[in-house]
Amino acid sequence: MTAGLLVKRAGPQMSVQDLGRPGFLSKGLARGGAADRSGHAEGAALLGQNAAFASLEMAGMGGIFEATGPLRIALTGAVMPARIGDRILAWPGRYHLDPGDVLDIGPASSGTYGYLSLGGGIATEAVLGSRSANFVAGIGARVAEGDTLPAGEENGSEFSDATIDVADRFSGGVVRVVPGAQTSFYSEETRARFAETTFVRDRRGNRQGVKLIGDGLPFEAAGQKTVLSEMIVPGDIQMTGDGAPFVLLPECQTTGGYPRIGSVLPEDLPIVAQAAPGTQLRFRFLTFDEAEAAFQPEEARWRALRSAVRPLVRSAEEIRDLLSYQLISGVTAGGADIYGMEEDA
Amino acid sequence: MVHPRPEPPRFPQIVRQGVDGCVVRFSDKLTEAGNRAALAFQGALAAGEVAGVEEAASALASVYVRFASIPALHEGVTALERLLAEEDFYAADLPGGRRLWTIPAVFGGAAGPQLDDVAASVGVSRATAIETLTNTRMRVLATGFAPGQPYLGELPEAWNLPRLGDLIDVPEGALVVAIRQVVLFANASPTGWQHVGQTAFRVYRPENTDRPFPLAPGDEVCLRGVEPGALNGLREGDGGATWEALP
For a surface tag, which of A51, A167, B153, B197 has the fewest beta carbons within 10 Å of its beta carbon? Predict the structure, then answer.
């Protein structure tokens, strides 16, 4: 049997994701790909492989997986309790599974999207150049109990346990915004009010986008009912009919007439994607000069991740302490929809 | 509170969109010339006329351009300005390789429950409404919103119907109308447009690696009225549609 994972139990929102399908925008197909591209890329960095390799995206809840061969794995993104058999794992981390080992990943204590990466990537069949499921486009399916996730050819050389040092992006905070083609449709007063509002991530959200609510609503543009439909890209902040912002994510619609006040700087978009319901977010407008100075292409950011990987030498006791700390300080409110995945409008 | 726009719009205009892209806007209203310009300009960029362009996608009357890097964007915007100055895209030929499609459709009844309402709003009989829908040769103004989903137009001025606030659910292949346009739905979806007919034409075919999106912006479409039941079993292949190459 080839190396891979047999899915013994699946969270309700698990799918194979890579960097998506750029280039089909004019055909109405959004790029798609991992909701938190940084989380996905951190898994690749831990395994010393290309971020184009596919990983398993787990929204809100993990699953139980059995190794069908020797396998390296990486756990990144939203913090989830994880163990191999009885052994508790630190998150994020890189580990080794022997055939028959059972990996158990629980509900997210902080953030929304967790990633399980395999050495050699998940080698499912590509459609239009990508292995990403895109539910809006009807490509791929949710990963379910009984599925197997085959690993691709493993060329990795790092087998010891390791972790990666990454900035916290699971607790909301300030998100930088770049002006867009329709920012000027909004008055200066509206833009200022938008930047002064503390938003809360609504319970409505999925891979298409997340809705935000706040005291400053509604935010209206000049002549917004007659705005001609234009192209939309992930990161755009679109005001729907009630004047509430939606931050658009990888499976967003590709065109639309609701106006957009700006676009989240690409490296800050994971903060929005990872915000669980109830998380507070604020927006800060950058000038183009500031945005260009702050902007780092993904390839450069992801190359730098390699040097953030370090050996994992914690004792089991320390790891337990760490996990309990994260569970206590996590943002998931009691009784909240832990999946953060109620259906979109 | 609604505020006036700060300046009168002038076209074509280039406005930045996010950190690595821009929008070339040919009109703020849907016009034949504005749509023609967007299609032709996107065609020019697809043909490689400006270096450093990572992706160019046309909407109804604008083109979104994404560049490979910030330096490429700065050089690229200058090149876009030059291209716009050199050529009148409003009068340009549409891109080559276009197709004229004839797509069979059932109108009214269960296949188009709002046809009678639409005919009443337009102020014509049901038969005249169907006649207009089938006699108007429409252009694929843009594909978007969902994979391969075409915005077809334009219908006569009397068809400038508003989108409705109450959404209805329509199936894959549905024909819906509003604002002088017809949309052929890619997927079952809620919509504020009015459902007048049904096709068996799939606008997105992931299993077809050669042409997963059969309709391209700039293609032309004629709808052909057929009897209820005539579409049964046609969902595979072209849904009973035929096409010929346009010169």
Answer: A167
